[in-house]
Amino acid sequence: MTTSMTASPRVEMLGVSKSFPGVRALDSVDLTLHPGEVHALLGENGAGKSTLIKILTGALECDRGDIRLEGRPVSFRTTGEAQASGISTVYQEVNLIPAMSVTKNLTLERTGGRLGFVSWRRAREQAREKLQRLKLDINIEQSVGSYSVAIQQLVAIARALDDDTKVLVLDEPTASLDAQETETLFGIIRDLKARGIAVVFITHFLDQVYEISDRISVLRNGSLVATKPTSELPPQDLVAMMIGRELGDVEAAFTKSERKAPGAEKVVARNLGKKRMLEPFDLVLRAGEVVGLAGLLGSGRTETAKLIFGAIRHDSGSLSVRGTEIRGNSPRRALDAGIAFCPEDRKTEGLVGELSIRENIVLTMQAKGGWLRRIPHRDQERLADEMIKALAIATPDAEKPVGQLSGGNQQKVVLARALASKPEVLLLDEPTRGIDVGAHAEIIVLIRALCDEGLALLVASSELDEIVAASDRVAVLRDRQKIGELSGEAINHENIIRMIAGGGADHE
Amino acid sequence: MSDRGTLNRIIALRHNRAVWPLLALALILIVDGFISPNFFDIRIVEGRLFGNLIDILYRAVPAALIALGMAVVIGTKGIDLSVGSIIAICGAVIAWRIQAGDPHLLILFYALVAGAVCGVWNGFLVAGLGIQPIIATLVLMVAGRGIGLLINLFYGGTNPSFESELLQGLSTGNIWLIPTRLFVALGLFLALWALIRRTALGLFIEAVGGNAAASNLAGVNSRLVTFFAYVICGVMAAAAGVIMTADTHTSDPVSVAMYSELDAILAVVIGGASLAGGRVFLGMTVIGALVIQALTTSILISGLPPEYNLVIKALVVMAVLFLQSDNARSAISRLIPGGSR
Amino acid sequence: MLKNALAGAAFAVSALVCSTAFAQTIGFSQVGSEGDWRPAFSANMQESAKDYGIDLKFANAQGKQEEQLRAVRAFIAQGVDAIIIAPVVVTGWDQVLQEAKEAEIPIFLVDRDVEVKDPSLYVTRISADFNLEGKLAGAWLAAESKGTCKIVELQGTTGSAPAIERKKGFEAVIGQFPAMEIVATQSGDFTTEGGKKVMEAFIKSTNNLDGICASFAHNDNMQLGAIQAMKEAGLKPGKDVLMVSVDYVPAIVEALKAGEANASVELRSAVGKFIYPVILDYLKSPQELPKWIVIPSDLHTAN
């Protein structure tokens, strides 16, 4: 029950180094975790956060360095060993089995039955006990998949915790949570902290870092930049430490420049809708204009983009691209008409993890060209190299399987594929999801640059900052319905929030 | 210094996926050399090359053709259990049309069309109706041999044996001392390779197998690609069917190519592909088929009682797959000091 | 086994059509319609039933015992005069045969055997003797080679009853001749394809069948494959090597004529004339019969 910083450290990682073929992932990194502290671990994509965590939790072995748990040197060869010693992890992508019940998910590991048999009565008791720790009251017989992502996240945390948990690692736990759910989670984190558990918190939301963490460690390019108490590190300094350059650049990206008047209408949606999914809406996308899609989780942002792209077939209204109506819309027809789409969920909808960066990038171009007209290998390479350079994708070469890239770089590959098809209209669904601050700014800059080149853009995002910074016009959604638009000077946090909250909407 | 370079090169070879199946093949042949001293002899008999090595190539042809089609289907994250039944149907069609007196070139075409039709059926069930591949192809696997029997019954073929210069020429004939079927296999291999690798079809198949949803959003018509994969598999099985049926001069729907689907799947897996889809290795699949055939041939010449055959085959296959498993390999290199990187 | 369902159904339909009022009604539960021999066997049973004035109720079990049990119970319910069973498997018969006994319906087995605790549950088994077939082949070969012969053997499916018994019978005979021995034996799974593959390997491992005087195959299909393999290797089957096998299928008859095969033991499919008289006699005057009545096997040669 100690929260004192002077107590002996829970975990000490000293001089930890790790290399992968062609990449030095960690170079002599130190990390100390005290009982009862929330330790924020920050850094850009590929800074080495995941590698460090994987070494701590036994998923990877380090090449050099020492790990001490409560003063004893340890070396975990599997996550199971680490867990048995009290180090638990909850990953960003929830590792639950959706079709199985909450009980089964909670007792998948450590089914302590005699002779390997599972006593379901005991399993249910254990499950209730685990959920009780988080004050989570849900039906444990229901399948995990039937609950919201937020609840699933909490179930995953409940699974990771038990009586002798000493260290809990939370890898971007709030990425898919809304404000209220995040608050619930923070309540739980504070509770754990009070029980003396050391919590490692990885996130890209800086305000959350300041809200919850006691100390901050920043990694950059595989090295530790510094570890400091949160109270002694102002946000501007933190961002500068993370991206290694003056904050001015980032702020410039967020500052609106003089905008040219929007060009021709590229996409016109009239009464476009789908029953039980999205109420019919009107939307116009123009060349050289960024339209933001704002709304809470589940308000229909993704569905709007997918309806325009034809990934979801509309059952009412019409959609015209450059004046021609598209009938029987499908991704293929949308692509042929010059619309490209970057989905929100890279892993399940964006990329083919087994294929190389090159193959992922050329896929859409090749699909448009047809299977008979294969793009020559040399052209594929040239295109991939161009894109890697243009979007600053961090990789030794274009033949690396996409699945091995970090989240931000994967997102860039999705974007590269869309751009390679030379679209006139680009639909981006959560382009900065799971990406940290540096890459975040890069992508916003990129969106503006594309817009200046005359592309029509639609950006769906859960982050208001992003919407406000990037958009010329904002369409606001609530409860699967478009409730209005904002443009020009009217685009600011207050107006958008007021519309979403249902107050007097500033229709124009 | 150069020693070290060579060593490093050998260590790097471990990670080349071609090494382990080739090593397995070499080991099997070396063991054969000990079992039977004149194992590697090649003579000329009846105007053709003759010997165990030729036999392995010769016998591996149908299995390799089936496995190549299977590799394509497995690339889409699918599986085709019906290849043996497709061969049974092709055999019955051949025997039937020969009895009916059709020109034999036309019969060759009919047989391949029969295979394509079977592939269309499988493709329709999997891509059109969205039935899981293992179930969808089970339908034809179960019904196909019955259809073959019905065709035999249909023309009253109690003795469905036949003679055909063209078909037997393709299957058991030879050109310049070399069995014709090796040319047939090489031709089909190159044709399939060109279809997969010289067009974008291979990329689409691997993309669909790796992530169908993402491929769809990237503009690939994943259902059409999947459908096409089953048609390719059907045609390849039919080609194997022509060779097998002409080889035995008879249509035997009940027992022809029994368990050939399992050998084909095994060949694909030995070739380094994953049943989870996403990768097609045509060349390695052929090596996989050769490993299996070399094993079968060596069991036959070993003189061991037939009761041991299946067990030995299973053990060797297990050993090959064990060598290919990354987990097993890293466990071994941990055991051998200095073996780890 | 389902693969035979369609073909089997065709037989079942034709069987129903020809049932009209006859003196005796007999139910026949057949295994299925796999291979060449069994359909011919079924057809003969149906044909010759007419000659004996029997109303034969034919049921195809499609290779499934549960189907067969259902058919036998249906026969009992219909009150047939006798039931013929060609069993799918050897075990699991006690219950249903007891039911038949209580209904006072005599059971006759054909083809394969059953294992029951109480042998009085069936009257007799009327079938060919696999062991005898092997003995006939062995005896012919002993006579033909004058007791001196190195033999290669193509076995049937490993562990199957015909493969085991034909091998036993064959070995029992050649065991009497010190100069006769099996130098190589492998399973060809009763198929042409298998026979050809195995013979190809034998040719290589024995240096072109050097010193081999005979090939004994457990069925004709394998022997036909072996003949092709030998011809492709430039050997003359039937002349360089004596070819003896079992079944006497139409294709081996051709091969015998062409001199490429030397002898085949007939596995009769026309067995109605052996089976029905036994049953009809028993129905007329029930009496204790031997538990196995062997249908004689014939060995055919080229002339």
Automatic annotation (TrEMBL), chain A:
ABC transporter domain residues: 11-246, 262-504
Keyword Ribosomal protein carried by entry: no
Location, primary (coarse class): membrane
Superkingdom to which the source organism belongs: Bacteria
Coiled-coil intervals: 117-144
InterPro entries: AAA+_ATPase, ABC_carbohydrate_import_ATPase, ABC_transporter-like_ATP-bd, ABC_transporter-like_CS, P-loop_NTPase
Keywords associated with the record: ATP-binding, Cell membrane, Coiled coil, Membrane, Nucleotide-binding, Repeat, Sugar transport, Translocase, Transport
UniProt xrefs under PROSITE patterns: ABC_TRANSPORTER_1 (PS00211), ABC_TRANSPORTER_2 (PS50893)
Subcellular location: Cell membrane
Gene Ontology cellular component terms for the protein in this record: plasma membrane
GO molecular function ontology, one term from the record: ATP hydrolysis activity
Topology in the lipid bilayer: Peripheral membrane protein
Name of this protein: Sugar ABC transporter ATP-binding protein
Source organism: Pacificispira spongiicola
Organism placement in taxonomy: Bacteria, Pseudomonadati, Pseudomonadota, Alphaproteobacteria, Rhodospirillales
Automatic annotation (TrEMBL), chain B:
GO cellular component entries: plasma membrane
Keyword Iron: no
Annotated transmembrane regions: 18-36, 56-74, 81-99, 105-127, 134-155, 175-196, 224-244, 256-273, 280-302
Molecular functions (GO terms): transmembrane transporter activity
Keyword vocabulary terms for this entry: Cell membrane, Membrane, Transmembrane, Transmembrane helix
Record flagged with keyword Secreted: no
Compartments it resides in: Cell membrane
Membrane topology: Multi-pass membrane protein
Main location: membrane
Pfam families tied to this protein: BPD_transp_2
UniProt cross-references to PANTHER family, sorted A to Z: ABC TRANSPORTER PERMEASE PROTEIN YPHD-RELATED-RELATED (PTHR32196), GALACTOFURANOSE TRANSPORTER PERMEASE PROTEIN YTFT (PTHR32196:SF19)
Protein name per the record: ABC transporter permease
Organism: Pacificispira spongiicola
TrEMBL record, chain C:
Family membership: Belongs to the bacterial solute-binding protein 2 family.
Protein's UniProt keywords contain Magnesium: no
Listed Pfam families: Peripla_BP_4 (PF13407)
PANTHER family, sorted: D-ALLOSE-BINDING PERIPLASMIC PROTEIN-RELATED, GALACTOFURANOSE-BINDING PROTEIN YTFQ
A GO molecular-function descriptor: carbohydrate binding
InterPro entries linked to this entry: Peripla_BP_I, SBP_2_dom
Species whose genome carries this gene: Pacificispira spongiicola
Keywords: Signal
Domain of life of the organism encoding this protein: Bacteria
Name the record gives this protein: ABC transporter substrate-binding protein
One CC-aspect GO term: cell envelope
Domain Periplasmic binding protein: 26-265
Main location: other
Signal peptide location: 1-23
Cellular compartment(s): Cell envelope
